[in-house]
Amino acid sequence: MITAELTAERCFDGWQKRFRHSSVILNAEVCFSIYLPPQAKLHPVPVLYWLCDSGEDDRALFATYTAQQHAAKLGVALVGVAPGSVPRLVALSAQLGLMQPQLCYVNATQNPWAKHFRLFDYLQYELPQLIETHFPVNDRRSVGGFGVGAHGALVLGLSNPQRYCAVSGFDPIFKPAQYPALCDLLSVLLGDNSSSWQQYDVTELLNLSLSQLPILLYQSGSSYGDIAAREQQQCRRVAEVKGYPFELIRMPGYAPGTGFTASFIARQLKFHSLYL
User: Fold this and answer.
1) Which end of the chain, N or C, is less surrounded by CB atoms within 10 Å?
2) Per-position DSSP letters for 53-82, written without gaps between them
């Protein structure tokens, strides 16, 4: 249930808005941002759900107005969401001594997290139902994100290919268990049995997938380390063997952040528009 409209402004003949709603799945208040292009005044439009990186809130994609400009031309609605937009999760992480920027898009199974930290189910079911009920959009969906959000987008898309038309992202993480900080986080949220972590391993999901969901990813040059190189090599190998439509483009000289996203978000939106 939407409880408040927080902001609203005209933008490229459409509307940029931010709302707060009460989530049943998260048992918490959540903020999300939405851009409705001008075409939404005439007919329902498709939606790109954007999962922001750790440490960001739901407004991160919209800060430069670049995404809205291109979404207006393509007739695509944009919805932004982030763990940092759930105050109860941020407060809980602080109480338990966890850094909020570590939070990612999974369903916790360990207490006290399990009561509130079910971001995967929230994104899979509750948020799309809310958006499709209250706004002039149709049921054509794509998903993308940045960093941890790109990982969440890949897991959502590969786990539910019938619900999404395409997946994209910037600086994705493929195997969270290879990163010490995320490995510690998964232990807290999911327990020490690493077999339960496999549902969030993109390489494993690619290997098991029977779908052909188009994927487009961009990697900034400065975030390209040894772990990222191994991850990418493994994913490329699996995609090649399966004939999967998987494209990952490295962009030397670019650093993670707003400039990187603003430089290439137009290409990602155009990619999604081909399938929505």
Assistant:
1) N
2) PTT--TTGGGTTSHHHHHHHHHT-EEEEE-
Q: Is the dihedral of CA 60, 12, 31, 138 positive or negative?
A: negative
Please say if the pLDDT value at position 95 is more than 90: no
Mean pLDDT of 207-217: 90
Is the pLDDT at 102 greater than 80? The verdict is: no
Q: Counting Cβ atoms within 10 Å, is residue 163 exposed (0-12), middle (13-18) or buried (19+)?
A: middle
The pTM assigned to this predicted structure is: 0.94
Task: Decide: 6 and 30 in contact? Cβ < 8 Å.
Answer: no
pLDDT of residue 247: 93
Tokens of 238: 């699996």
- Which secondary-structure segment (H or E) carries 92? helix 87-95
The 10 Å Cβ neighbour count of residue 27 is: 12
Q: Assess contact for 197 and 188: CB atoms under 8 A.
A: no
Residue 125, both tokens? 């079911």
